[in-house]
Each structure stands twice: as C-alpha cells, then as structure tokens.
Design goal:
The complex is a heterodimer of chains A (444) and B (233). With 444 residues, chain A is of the alpha+beta class. Chain A folds into two domains: 367 residues, no CATH class; 63 residues, 2-Layer Sandwich (Dna Ligase, domain 1). Helices cover 32% and strands 26% of the residues of chain A. In chain A, the strands form four sheets. In chain A, strands 3, 4, 5, 12, 17, 18, 19, 20 and 21 form a nine-stranded mixed beta sheet that branches. In chain A, strands 6, 7, 8, 9, 10 and 11 form a six-stranded mixed beta sheet that branches. In chain A, strands 13-16-14-15 form a four-stranded antiparallel beta sheet. In chain A, helix 3 packs across helix 14. With 233 residues, chain B is an all-alpha fold. Chain B has a domain of 136 residues. Chain B starts with 5 loop residues before the first helix and ends in a 10-residue tail after the last helix. The chains are: A alpha+beta (444), B mainly alpha (233). At the A-B interface, helix 9 and strand 7 of A face helix 1 and helix 6 of B.
Chain lengths: 444, 233
C-alpha cells in the first residue's frame, strides 16, 4: 500500500469533523502568544494519514538510530575530550560560539552516558522518494502526544481503517517514554517539569504525565536539599525525584547556574545533576548538537564516531563561514533557503525567491557581515501530501518529525508527527504558524 | 507514584467546589424556570438568598445571565469555566476522560444558548456533569486525591443549600457526607479540620433549631474550616 491510495484512506478515515470533534472533546490544544496575548487553539487534524511502507520505515529507522547514536557520542566528546575538534573535523569556532554550548556542562557525564533521550528529527521526503533530514531537535522536542491521542481517537471514529489495513500500533509511546525515564532514574519518582498552564505545549506535558504515571510539577513545588531534588507535598513532606523530564529550556533551568532572572528554574538543580543524584531528560547543553550550524557536520560525525557512512542524507547545505560555500551562496541566493541558526519554530527562515531585489541585496550584506549566523540550503522539492480541505482533497507541503528514544537501546517510535502547511504556497509547517497535523501510519 | 503538592491540592479542592456550584446552580435555575412559567420575576427569592440586587428586570434576562454570562460570577458558565481551569492542570490526577466531560459540559452550555428550548437543551449538560463525577470515581485510584475533591464538593453544596434555606433533613444529609470526608483527610494535611470551627459546626448542626437559628454561623464555619488558626487534630 502506498500514499497514492488517497481515495481509499479518505473513505476509510471518514469525516474529518468527527475526529476533530473528538480531539476537541479531549482538549488537544496548543497555546500561542500573539501580540502579548495568550490564545489556546485546537490543533487542526487532517484524517488522511501519511503512510510509510514497512521497508521504507526500516531504512529510516536504521538511519535515525545511527544519527542519534552519533549525536550522543558527539555530546559526550564535546563536554569531555573534544577529539572531534582536535582532529579538525569541526572548527572550534562552531562549538564555542554556539548558544547551545554550555560551559557549565563541561565534564558532566549523565546517567548511562545518554544526553539526548528523546530526539525529534525532522525529515522530508523528496518527490523521488528519498528522505532528507532537515533538522535535529535534541533539547525539548515536542509533538509526540498529538499523533498518540489522534490514533486512539481515529480508531474509535474509523475502526475499519485499522481492521482493513496492516498498521503498526503506535500507542506504545508512553511506555517507551516511561522506560526511557526509568533507565535514567537515579532513585526516586518520575516527574515532568512544565513552565505551566500557559506554555504552548502544556497539553502535551499533562498528557504525557498522565500516561507515563509521572508527576507533573512546576518549579515552585521543587527544592534541593543536601544535594537531592525533592517534590514538596501539601502536608509539608517531601518526595525524592529520581528523574526529571524537563520541558523548559536550558537557560531557565537553574538560576544559580544559568539565567539569574529565571523565575521558572530550580536553584542548585545543576549541582544535583552534576553529583549524579537526578537524571535530567534531555541533558542540559544538548543545544550545541542541534545548532543549525552543527547540522552540516552530522554526516561527518557519523563517519568519525561510528566509522559508518550516513544512511540518511542531510538536505544539501552550505555554510557561508567557508569561503567556497559563501561564493556559492552569493551566486545562488535567490534559489536557496536561508536559515538563521539562532531561530526555531519556523521563524528566521527566508526563501531567496520570495525577496525583492532590494531585500535580497540587503540580506546579502547581512550574510557577509555575519557568516556564522546563517546556513543556506537547496530548496528540496518535497512530496506534497493530500489533505482534506472543506471536503476536497488538496495537496500541501508536509514534513515528518520522527521520535527517537535512547535508553538501554536506541529505538525509533513507529509513527511520528506529520505536520502540514495549510497555505498552498508555503513550505512552513509549524503549528505556531497555522499548520495542522496528520497521523503517520507505518505499515506492517 | 503519587505525591500531591500544595498547588494541586488547592486545585483539586476548587475543582470540586466549582463543579458543584455549576451543577447546583444549573438544577436550581431549572426549577426557577419552571416557576417562571407561572410568575413574572420568579427569580426574586433566589436573588435574595444570595443578597443580590435585581438588575435583570425580566425572567429571560435573569436566565440568560445566570446560565450563559461568563462575566457573572454566579452563572453556570462562569463556574464551569473555573472548574475547567482547575481541571486542566490536574489531567494526570483526574484523567483525560474525566476532563473531557467538563469540555463537553462547556460545549453543551454554548449550544444551549442557541437553542429554542432551554430546558431540553440543558439535559445533556446535567448528564455530562453526572458523568464527570462517575468518571472521577472510575479513574482516580488515590483516595486522598478523590477525598480532597469531594471535600470541596460537599462544602460547596452545603454552603449553597444553607443560603437557599433548604430543609434541615436535606442539609443534614450533606453535612454528614462532609463529616465523613473530613474524617478521611490524613492528619497533618491542610484538609484536616480546624478545631474551633469544626466544633462550632458540629454543635450547630446537632438539631434543627440550631440550624435554623445559626445558618449564617454555619456558612462562616465552612468558610474558615481549613484556616490554620489553631492546633489541628
């Protein structure tokens, strides 16, 4: 079965409204701030799934495991010996000026030497069927809860779609996450740290807490005593936390080690972590490995650490930092997509073809002035996926965020978050920019 | 793996209170609706019970405000929204399923506002609130968590019943429920009753005369039941 069986799937999954009604009932929302005002929105779901054939998934799986293993090796190396720099594979400059590199993490070895426990790897499929990695997200990748609950609800709304097709059951994500958390547990309860109700991904935090049997906590419920992290109970007692799946950014984690003005962090958390008394998922400091500039070097990392050829390709990428690449970027700016390495969530992405001549020249000067700030990529003509739009099937750009969980072994969740653009002319699929999502079926 | 923080215990308590407030207000308004079929300003006594000024002028304006107006702190819409606000941060304690009944109740109320037959359109809402309580019982395995919600629920119900001058035997049943819930709260927790207010409450609710003469005191006792003023037992 292939993606081409659009009509069959459309018929099988039934009316999009029914499933969206169920998603609404169960509170599948995300929040966005616009002009300083918080709005909670339902995440639009398209019932036509992305379908990945079994053989195709096996190859993606192998490539993702390889990539995440190499990235974990890289993180250990960077915060210890830095052999990859010493051996001239990655210029020193790319490490130390990265905002994701945290000197405070130097010399720290996390439990079982795992840094990226949950990796969200963004891929796109080109029209020739080849998959390309667009981005690695090793800090706090979000989105797994949406296809997880969507599958549960789609099975209710369209049972025949699942009885008539051989689809791998993806409802094991919470179990995989729980096992990953337990593998990192240093003795105590599992907790998920949320910045609170008004965070964009609050639904996900609370849903994963419910389904992994973890306690959902905010910083003011936690404290450090004698180098142990505790949850303060309502009766004045305390419960030790052994593993903290934090959903707040590194710089806000611990005001005594990072941003002193952070109001959502836990003072001295880094000391507890450094002493091996709590596991933090994902490890602080991972940002150095998912920096858009470092992305360019991941295939080289795979070769360097694992001695293997990369199974999955990067999108063709140029670093204006290198003279040769700068020349190419300057000569081809109008056909490239330029990404600001400091931005995320679909922001800081500029398509050269969309700029006026004046803007293009202005942008050219900015790149020359700050070559390390940008990467340039060829625009991949990626496969459009069918979506239902007011009862009609239309084609839209879509990507796939695959989730890789690293515990005792590295495992790829047989599903993922397929995000699509609702705008026919846009390549930007992020939910914060109005995109929707689909289920991702991996066939048996 | 349950550990309850102060913040969550407050949320659990208020989840119970607001859901009950929405439910009792809904049922009362349905009774008033029936009364209004035969009487203009059939809501006047209800406003008096809560010391509220009549700024409505008509049965219809009253119904609209007390059912659907989210800015009226005494409306069903307001209480449901507050219940949901508390529930949404308690998903891992109360379950996605339980929370979904509050969402359904909110949706039913919104649909009801557009309906031509108010009373009929409110029936699903009442069912959904019953289902919410059933779902809580089904999904909450930790008695301590369930008990905090039920303490909030029974305190709210008792408070409303007393304000609306419900008969002693009805009120006493709710009072007995509350006593049982309070006894279940573990020692050393904030929901262990306060000695002075608890004793006062027990004394007043001993008989019908005490209840009739001191209903305002009962409301005061309930309000201050958990204030850590004195030694808890």
């Amino acid at each position: 079965m292939t993606q081409q069986n659009i009509e069959q799937f459309t018929k099988a999954v039934g009316n999009a409204n029914e499933i969206n009604e169920l998603l609404r009932r169960y509170g599948v929302k995300f929040g966005i701030y616009k002009n300083g005002v918080f709005n909670e929105q339902f995440f639009p779901f398209d019932p036509i799934p992305r379908v990945i054939a079994s053989e195709d998934f096996k190859s993606i799986e192998k490539g993702l495991v390889q990539r995440v293993n190499a990235l974990n090796e890289f993180l250990f190396d960077i915060y210890h010996e830095k052999n990859i720099v010493r051996d001239g594979i990655i210029p020193e400059n790319f490490i130390y000026i990265s905002k994701g590199y945290l000197a405070q993490c130097e010399g720290i070895t996390p439990p079982n030497r795992i840094y990226s426990h949950i990796s969200g790897i963004d891929l796109v499929q080109a029209k020739d069927g080849e998959w390309y990695i667009l981005e690695d997200n090793l800090r706090i990748p979000s989105g797994a809860s949406y296809p997880l609950i969507a599958r549960e609800l789609t099975r209710i709304a369209a049972p025949e779609a699942f009885s008539e097709n051989e689809i791998v059951d993806n409802r094991n994500y919470a179990q995989l996450l729980k096992e990953t958390m337990e593998y990192t547990n240093c003795g105590g309860i599992r907790a998920i740290l949320t910045p609170g109700r008004y965070n964009a991904a609050y639904f996900e935090h609370s849903y994963l807490a419910e389904h992994t049997g973890s306690v959902l906590v905010q910083n003011d419920e936690l404290f450090v005593e004698d180098n142990i992290l505790y949850h303060r109970t309502y009766s004045g007692g305390k419960t030790r936390i052994g593993v903290l799946y934090r959903r707040i950014a590194d710089e806000y984690l611990d005001p005594l080690n990072f941003l002193p003005e952070s109001l959502i962090g836990i003072p001295n958390l880094m000391e507890v972590y450094r002493s091996g008394n709590v596991g933090i998922i994902n490890a602080p400091g991972n940002g150095v490995a998912d920096d858009k500039g470092i992305y360019y070097f991941v295939p080289k990392m795979i070769k360097y650490y694992l001695g293997e050829d990369p199974i999955l390709k990067n999108a063709p990428t140029y670093l204006p930092f290198y003279e040769e690449d700068m020349k190419y970027v300057m000569d081809n700016l109008e056909k490239l997509v330029i990404k600001d390495v400091a931005e995320a969530g679909g922001y800081g992405v500029v398509f050269g073809r969309e700029l006026t001549k004046e803007k293009l020249e202005e942008f050219r000067r900015t790149i020359i002035a700050e070559p390390r700030r940008f990467i340039a990529q060829e625009v991949i003509d990626f496969l459009d996926l069918p979506i239902l739009d007011n009862g009609e099937t239309v084609m839209r750009k879509a990507d796939l965020r695959a989730f890789v969980l690293s515990g005792e072994t590295t495992r790829v969740w047989a599903s993922g978050l397929t995000r699509f653009s609702r705008n026919p002319d846009s390549f930007v699929v992020n939910s914060s920019q109005g995109g929707g999502f689909k289920d991702t079926w991996v066939l048996k | 793996m349950t550990t309850i923080s102060k913040e969550h215990s407050d949320r659990l308590y208020w989840l119970g209170r607001y859901t009950e407030r929405a439910f009792t207000t809904l049922r009362t308004i349905q009774k008033l609706y029936d009364k209004m079929l035969d009487k203009s300003k059939g809501y006047a006594d209800y406003l008096k019970c809560f010391g509220l000024y009549d700024s409505y002028g008509s049965n219809e304006a009253f119904i609209n405000s007390f059912l659907y107006d989210g800015s009226n702190a005494n409306s069903v819409a307001y209480s449901l929204e507050r219940a949901y606000d508390n529930g949404i941060v308690l998903r891992e304690e109360i379950s996605t399923h339980s929370l979904s009944f509050l969402q359904l109740a909110k949706d039913s109320l919104a649909k009801s506002e557009l309906s031509k037959n108010t009373r009929l359109s409110l029936l699903p809402l009442e069912d959904q609130l019953y289902a919410f309580w059933g779902c809580l019982n089904e999904y909450i395995y930790n008695d301590e968590i369930r008990n905090i919600i039920y303490i909030g629920k029974t305190i709210e119900r008792l408070d409303l019943y007393i304000r609306m001058a419900y008969p002693f035997d009805t009120t006493q049943k709710e009072y007995i429920r509350l006593m049982k819930n309070l006894e279940r709260a573990p020692k050393g927790t904030p929901y262990r009753y306060n000695t002075a207010n608890y004793s006062e409450l027990v004394k007043i609710m001993e008989n019908e005369d005490g209840y009739k003469q001191n209903s305002e005191k009962v409301i005061g006792c309930l309000e201050h039941l958990f204030e850590p003023l004195e030694v808890t037992v």
